[in-house]
Please model this.
Amino acid sequence: MKVSVGTIARLVGAILLAAFLVRPEAFAPLFAPLTSNGAPPIYRQGNLLALAWSHFQIVVFATLASTLVAVSLGVLVTRRSGAEFLPLSRAVVNVGQTFPPVAVLALTVPLVGFGDGPTFIALFAYGLLPIFENTLVGIQQVPAAVTEAARGCGMTPAQRLFRVELPLALPQIMTGTRLAVVVAIGTATIGSTVAAKGLGEVIIAGLLSDNTAFIVQGGLVVALMAALIYDAMLAAERSIILRLGLPANERE
Amino acid sequence: MIRLEGVTRFYGERAVVDDVSLVVEKGEMAVVVGRSGSGKSTLLRMINRLVEPTSGLISIDGRDVSTVPAHVLRRGIGYVIQGHGLFPHRTVADNIATVPRLLGWPRDRIARRVSELLELLQLSPARFSGQYPHQLSGGEQQRVGVARALAAGPDIVLMDEPFGALDPIIRSKAQDDLKAIQARLGATIVLVTHDMDEAFRLGDRIAVMEAGRVLQYGTPRDMIARPADPRVAELTGSGEGALRLLALVRAGDAAEPFDASTPPPSHSVPAGASLREALASLLWTGEGELAVTGDDGRPVGRVTLASVLRHGRSP
Ligand SMILES: Nc1ncnc2c1ncn2[C@@H]1O[C@H](COP(=O)(O)OP(=O)(O)OP(=O)(O)O)[C@@H](O)[C@H]1O
Ligand SMILES: [Mg+2]
Model:
């Protein structure tokens, strides 16, 4: 296997992130110049690793939920009998996008209370659109000759969906999920305003105590996490595309 | 046996297939030939219910196909789609195994069947089983498409321009192979093509289609000898009728016994060659007669220029 600059950068990024989350004090000298008046350079009010983990978890669960819903909707509207639901489904997934996340939080807190709930709902709503649209494209671009062959071989509609259409749409669906995850990792930070456990806590603590070091380390951890996950998911997509000999999708 | 009675299919206002009736006998190869857009594919696809007729009846061995659930019907009928339609996310072996898997065959039986078919279509199992369709040439893809259609040993195979993507030399080889495969499997085949030469080469019977109608359905000899319609004559190429007739006769069948009083001919043709090839050879060599040789290369008789000319005369 040839080791590229990219691979090394990824490895270094991953090691740095892990090291920082496990032993943040070791990085104190780096962040010290960003503090003043003897404020702590490293966030200590909560365990960084635990915060990152729950941040990650809420993103994963919310994205899984939006994937489930958006892919189901995408499948529904690409069936002959479901085509009439396309405009309605588009409208629904678009609502999620047009509402600013802060507004979603504000609206859902009275309904589900403080904590992870509102953030989950906001991330879920935000993930629907990219996944839905990509599922749609993915299923629609399955060549007509291939679906026709699946029918001609005697596959039932369900067999055609699970054995032919979805596997062939998979890379495209993964593109949608990847976009949703990356947006969600960033968006999840604002969840901390309504008491969701996550890396937003660090940033907010920095804002409240006017400690730039907190803001920077919170931001860096979120950004690094997003970049690494994006990268890993992209690599997974590429390997599938390569194996299938599908035309690499240029919509990056 | 496939029977079509008054089969019609409308798309909007237009009858794309218009009142077609014909019977394909068991073990026969019927070739549907016609120009692009004449309704060949639509006709073919009604047999396995990929398209439902607007009116008319289609039955297989006396059973109305519309009474059989579509997916069950299709598992019993091989289908080679125009432009192969292989599953890009599945290996060659998995593509071929599609129908046997749907039918729930045990694994080892499927594996055996897959290598058998690869061999039959001259694709080395070791090399091709694990490859993905995009790694194959157009001709190899089409052969895999044919293998997939034959996989579950169907009694009926529908083929929509199965050799469309092949160059002329590989194409005629593929046609010979198909003939041999059919003889071996005894399947009833309906094949669609727009190539009249292919129709004459393969068809036990030929249906000539034009604008949704079958102008004539009959043996190749009938087509030439008694075209039902000037358009049939035009399509079959009236000027080439004689050569097409010669192409239908094997030299072995036309051979006459040797005449002991004359020296044996210096050139020969194999018994399996057509009289058309024999004529070409006579013209080329300038001889008046050729020896006809059997499989073992031994002469079994002779064909003379006069007898070849007689076979090509308008019947
Ligand atoms: N689903 C459809 N909807 C509307 N029109 C159709 C449909 N399928 C086929 N047609 C029309 O029916 C006519 C016959 O089509 P068909 O595919 O049977 O032709 P063909 O003889 O197989 O042609 P080719 O040799 O080009 O494959 C064409 O004019 C085509 O446009
Ligand atoms: Mg066609």
Remarks:
- Chain A touches chain B at residues 143, 145-146, 148-156, 159, 164, 167-168, 243-246 (CB under 8 Å).
- The pocket of adenosine-5'-triphosphate (ligand 1) is lined by residues B 11, 16, 34, 36-42, 82, 194 (CB under 6 Å).
- Chain A has one domain: 5-243.
- The radius of gyration of chain A is 21 Å.
